[in-house]
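Hi V.,

Quick status before I head out on leave. The structure for the redesign project is tokenized and pasted below; the design run finished overnight.
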């Protein structure tokens, strides 16, 4: 008889950040026009969650760490080649393509939220308001 064993790959912090990011991103996306106060609050939440996730990428559990899933370019390419030939290795945690996807996802989310913060600053609000006022003269 085939014996199966359950392995918990993702720790509770990774799981909860994942789902709260899903919720806060969606809320930020749908509130951009009419509910600006809520939009800014969830936008800040996204930034806070990203900061925690980035820190957890250095000090967190095994599969949460960047060293576990950020692949060298050669490894990512050979994984993609193997994938096309239907003989890709299986991984616990992210495979090299999944690792690249996570980096792209975190970076694009960070850039989106920072652009929001900058827009807020240009409008004279938030922590960057003074900086934009000085630049604008
Ligand atoms: C991942 C997080 C966020 C998402 C998905 C998001 C999404 C959006 C979207 C879709 C727009 C409309 C852009 C357009 O119509 O051209 C927008 C505008 C804006 N966002 Fe965000 N945003 C985020 C974070 C933030 C943050 C952190 C702040 C400020 C602290 C912020 C402040 C603003 C402001 C001031 C606008 C312009 C509203 C206007 O005057 O039209 N956003 N955002």
């Amino acid at each position: 008889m085939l014996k199966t064993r359950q392995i918990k790959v993702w720790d509770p912090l990774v799981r909860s950040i994942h789902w709260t990011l899903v919720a806060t991103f969606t809320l930020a996306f749908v509130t951009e026009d009419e509910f600006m106060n809520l939009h800014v609050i969830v936008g800040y939440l996204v930034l806070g969650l990203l900061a925690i996730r980035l820190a957890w990428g250095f000090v967190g559990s095994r599969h949460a760490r960047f060293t576990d899933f950020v692949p060298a370019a050669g490894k990512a390419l050979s994984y993609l080649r193997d994938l096309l030939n239907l003989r890709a290795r299986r991984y616990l945690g992210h495979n090299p393509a999944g690792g690249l996807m996570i980096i792209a996802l975190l970076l694009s989310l960070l850039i989106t939220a920072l652009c929001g913060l900058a827009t807020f600053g240009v409008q004279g609000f938030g922590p960057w308001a003074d900086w934009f006022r000085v630049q604008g003269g």
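Above is the designed sequence. The pocket of protoporphyrin IX containing FE is lined by residues 25, 28-29, 32, 39-40, 43-44, 46-47, 109, 112-113, 116-117, 119-120, 123, 126 (CB under 6 Å).

G. will cover questions while I'm gone.

Best,
W.
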